[in-house]
Design a protein that fits this description.
The complex is a heterodimer of chains A (574) and B (330).
Chain A: H1 2-17, H2 25-44, H3 53-75, H4 77-87, H5 96-111, H6 118-145, H7 147-158, H8 161-167, H9 173-193, H10 196-210, H11 220-230, H12 232-240, H13 248-264, H14 272-284, E1 291-293, E2 296-298, H15 307-315, H16 318-347, H17 362-374, H18 395-416, H19 422-447, H20 461-468, H21 479-490, E3 496-498, H22 504-512, E4 521-523, E5 531-535, H23 541-551, E6 558-562, E7 565-572
Parallel strand pairs in A: 3-4, 3-5
Antiparallel strand pairs in A: 1-2, 5-7, 6-7
Chain B: H1 2-31, H2 36-52, H3 58-71, E1 77-81, H4 86-97, H5 100-103, E2 113-119, E3 131-138, E4 141-147, E5 156-157, E6 167-173, E7 176-184, E8 201-204, E9 210-217, E10 223-230, E11 237-246, E12 250-257, H6 259-264, E13 270-276, E14 279-286, E15 293-298, E16 306-314, E17 322-329
Helix pairs in contact in B: 3-4
The chains are: A mainly alpha (574), B alpha+beta (330).
């Protein structure tokens, strides 16, 4: 009697965890678990990462914006008069993320004390968007090619060192990556399901994407041709009837997208057209900053066409790129097969042999999305000072194809090793997953907090990147490491420190949060300073030489290094 | 016949089975091709482990330093490679060995011998063509001794004249010449975009101009030690008199502007005219974008003599004319 009862109990328990073929709520749980784990990892590793220049601006702007919203709620119309003042700070970028940074700072630090550091609270919304990116990538992959593909895609996305680095920051680069893939996914769902609620959702999400960062301007170049292609038969049929039929998601994006942007960005509530024009003009004629590439300092056009491919090869784990190649080839072969079948059907129609759409032409959508995210970086006038961060929206798609590639590899393993079954098969599959995520995990974990200095083993790691003359950092965020390793334990009491590329805002924050000793005094002039820092970038060499003359020594007292590569030199007046 | 048949069969059978074997091998290869992916993943992991554990420890640098300190003469070059390791070399070797004169050299021509301290098998590009004499390994750090196949003999270095005993500086406005005094003060320096630093010991001219020994970054951001003479602009001339210079057959030098000014290419040219007595040796123009450019003037008429060499520096526009030059007699 006991045996059947036990079996029944066991099967019931296992039944709860058994995943049905259909993607459903359990997959949302899986995606959310992945996202939650990733965000927890980000939070746990946030404090060792210093503050880049831009973050200081966004902390300040975020707090100002959120205060304005509080004023609006508390005092209503009075706040409207103050909108221009509040939102003129950093108005070259839309406000969604900054407002969330401010809200998080207020609630999670100031009010509820969830985070001891205000800056971790400010950063938390951006970390959550990294979680959203993993969640969406898993769900998208699972729906397209199965859970195995979705899972590996999400893991490989999170285990890109540059994604991991930027995911910590209260900036817009990972948020726009997340919004981009979310927007692509929602649009695909709208077309795949044909449901109005998904189409409406597509418009809302596109508006939020517009309110995140201007990369969103490029999304229509992917979404529009895709939607029109999916909708082609209905469009042609309608035209024959003298009507116009457009995909609902595009109509929704065109109508709701701008409305959402307008609603969340009070700066646009006055002089709307002029301010929109200024916004576009600012980014179309953006200033060029210095960046090193292959040993040369670039500070203006023409940008090297090889920048994106070389940087992708040098910063994305190679096994991820290999899997991407496998996946892209497999999907490309499917597309070519469909194209051939279509051509054959056109030349010799066979009843009942008409080609069918793949699921709402997902391959086409992903390919267009990838192209929309990267094409601009092959133009000579596109600034490259942001390193890889400006094309992060391409990475979820890259990861999705990598997930597809993994699925093919796993299927090939099963075919090659038919004797594997049951627990042995599961163990083999787990080992296969481990084999492709081990290196990305090790490289990503090791890169922190020097994510911008990190290069993959293919080019020799951090030192290999330095050998190649690839940029080691920007934004001066590594001063915190200099403080942890040298200034805090060794600087004389009250010493003045020349900060080089670190902003006063960042320095003040680091002192407020006890990351830097409070008695140390910041200086903007190496001539006045007892201690001088240089955050190593090629063009910062001029500051290095200035320090030699101003302090009378060319020998650093200490160097913050990653894998032996200088990150920050610390000079001390003899 | 049976023999022939047997032979034919023997010949054919391997041929057919060879194709089959190839096909079978190809199928097997395709069948197990999936293994390339986990293999690549593990290879990447292994490479990561090796790369992150192959950093030359401080002990290796210190051992290399002891070797160079024992062997290198003051006139020898000590250089570090790869370029990014230069700060590490300066820290480990200290300012007595990694001197500013060596680090911020005008070029390598004046050095007869070099000690190249390198990691990761790197080589200093400006020592290309030098003869390799010896190499000593200290763990991850290698010290290679190189000799210059055609070293140049520098007779007198004008940069070393920058002190009140060996140089006079004046500012000439119209016909009026005002002496600049040698003074000690806080260094004049700023952050990124501020231009080269002016050292604490310098000539201070009426109107705020200064002249001193500094280090300028060239267009590739290599350092060069030079006499920093920020342009005064207009018709004014900055006049440097180098006293008691030992002359050779030529006056050789380099000049540059602050790197940002060089690369923006928006400023007026700077001219430097060298004279000995009433003889004008030559006028050299430096235009934005020229970078750390070499020049040479014939002084063979004065070879073996000691004389005062005058350098007049003029630029019609003073905006960001952070001009720096070095010169020596050869």
């Amino acid at each position: 009697m006991n045996e059947p009862l036990a079996t029944s109990w066991r099967s019931r328990v296992l039944g709860v965890f058994a995943l049905p073929d259909r993607i459903g709520w359990r997959d949302h749980v899986i995606g959310a678990t992945l996202a939650g784990a990733y965000v927890a990892w980000l939070v746990a590793t946030a404090r060792v990462l210093g503050f880049p220049r831009d973050e200081g601006v966004y902390f300040r702007a975020g707090a100002t914006y959120f205060n304005w919203w509080r004023t609006l709620i508390e005092r209503g119309g009075d706040a409207l008069r103050l909108a221009d003042g509040a939102f003129s700070d950093n108005h070259e970028h839309p406000v969604l993320m900054k407002t969330l940074f401010g809200a998080s700072g207020y609630f999670l630090h100031q009010k509820w004390h969830v985070f001891a550091d205000a800056t971790t609270a400010f950063r938390f919304p951006a970390m959550c968007t990294a979680g959203i990116a993993l969640f969406t990538t898993y769900l998208f992959g699972a729906r397209l090619w199965g859970r195995r593909a979705g899972l590996v895609a999400a893991l490989l996305l999170g285990l890109m060192p540059r994604v991991f680095f930027h995911a910590h920051l209260a900036c817009f680069d990972v948020p726009i990556m997340a919004m981009w893939i979310w927007c692509v996914y929602v649009n695909w769902r709208a077309l795949d399901t044909g449901k109005l609620r998904w189409a409406i959702f597509a418009g809302i999400v596109y508006g939020l994407t517009l309110a995140t960062k201007h990369n969103a301007w490029l999304l229509p170049f992917a979404l529009t041709p895709h939607a029109l292609f999916v909708h082609r038969r209905a469009t042609l049929a309608a035209l024959k009837r003298g009507r116009i039929s457009l995909p609902a998601n595009l109509v929704s994006m065109a109508l709701l997208g701008p409305l959402v942007l307008y609603a969340v960005w009070p700066y646009l509530w006055h002089d709307t057209i002029a301010r929109l024009e200024w916004w576009v003009d600012f980014h179309m004629h953006h200033e060029y900053y210095n960046i090193e590439f292959l040993g040369k300092n670039y500070f203006g056009p023409p940008s090297p066409k090889s920048y994106l491919p070389v940087m992708v090869l040098a910063t994305v784990p190679s096994v991820t790129l290999l899997l991407f190649g496998v996946g892209a080839y497999a999907r490309g072969a499917v597309a070519v097969g469909r194209l051939r079948a279509w051509v054959r059907a056109r030349s010799a129609p066979v009843p009942g042999a008409a080609t069918t759409d793949s699921r709402a032409e997902a391959d086409l959508l992903l390919a267009l999305s990838l192209l929309a995210a990267i094409t601009l970086f092959f133009f000579p006038r596109t600034p490259i000072f942001g390193g890889t961060k400006h094309w992060l929206p391409a990475y979820p798609v890259l990861a999705l194809f990598a997930g597809c590639g993994f699925d093919r590899v796993a299927a090939a393993m099963q075919t090659a090793l038919p004797s594997l079954a049951g627990a042995r098969l599961q163990a083999a599959q787990a080992a296969l997953v481990a084999s492709v995520i081990a290196a990305p995990l090790a490289v990503t974990a090791h890169s922190h907090p020097f994510g911008l200095s990190a290069y993959v083993p293919l080019v020799g790691g951090t030192a290999g990147g330095a050998d190649l003359g690839l940029n080691r950092q920007f934004w001066g965020y590594t001063t915190q490491d200099a403080a942890a390793q040298y200034l805090n334990p060794k600087a004389p009491n009250g010493a003045s420190v020349f900060l080089d590329d670190t902003t006063w805002d960042a320095w003040n924050r680091m002192q407020e949060e006890k990351r830097v000793r409070r008695d140390l005094r910041a200086s903007g002039n190496p001539g006045d300073a007892q201690i001088a820092l240089v955050q190593h970038e090629l063009h910062m060499n001029e500051v290095d030489y200035t320090i030699w003359v101003a302090l009378g020594t060319d020998a650093p007292a200490y160097i913050v290094r990653q894998d032996g590569v200088p990150i920050v030199s610390v000079y001390r007046r003899p | 016949m049976p023999v022939t048949r047997a032979k034919t069969a023997c010949k054919l059978r391997p041929a057919v089975s060879g194709d089959e074997q190839k096909r079978a091998a190809a199928k097997a290869w395709q069948r197990y091709a999936f293994a390339a992916i986990p293999a690549a993943g593990l290879l990447e992991l292994g490479a990561h482990v090796v790369q992150t554990h192959s950093v030359a420890p401080d002990a290796d640098w210190k051992a290399a330093r002891e070797f160079v300190a024992t062997h290198a003469a003051p006139e020898d070059l000590v250089a570090f490679a790869p370029r990014w390791a230069d700060p590490v070399g300066r820290q480990e070797f200290g300012p007595q060995i990694a001197t500013v004169e060596r680090e911020a050299r005008a070029d390598t021509t004046r050095f007869a011998r070099a000690y190249e301290v390198s990691i990761r098998g790197a080589h200093a590009p400006d020592l290309d063509g030098w003869h390799r004499e010896d190499a000593a390994r200290f763990g991850g750090v290698t010290v290679t001794t190189l000799t210059n196949p055609s070293p140049v003999h520098v007779i007198d270095d004008l940069v070393s004249h920058v002190d009140p005993q060996r140089m006079r500086v004046s500012r000439v406005d119209g016909g009026h010449e005002s002496e600049c005094t040698f003074a000690h003060g806080p260094p004049l320096a700023g952050g990124l975009g501020s231009g080269p630093a002016m050292p604490p010991d310098r000539f201070v001219c009426p109107g705020g101009s200064n002249v001193g020994t500094s280090v300028v970054a060239d267009l590739d951001y290599y350092p060069h030690r030079c006499i920093y003479t920020p342009g005064v602009g207009g018709d004014s001339t900055l006049r440097l008199r180098f006293l008691d210079v030992v002359l050779g057959s030529s006056l050789h030098g380099h000049h540059a502007l602050y790197v940002e000014a060089e690369r923006m290419k928006t400023g007026a040219p700077v001219t430097i005219t060298f004279r000995i007595g009433d003889t004008t040796l030559g006028t050299i123009f430096h235009r934005d974008g020229d970078g750390w450019r070499a020049f040479e003037l014939d002084t063979s008429a004065f070879a073996g003599q000691r004389a005062e060499v005058v350098a007049d520096i003029v630029s019609p526009g003073g905006q960001r004319r952070a001009y720096c030059f070095e010169a020596n007699t050869q």
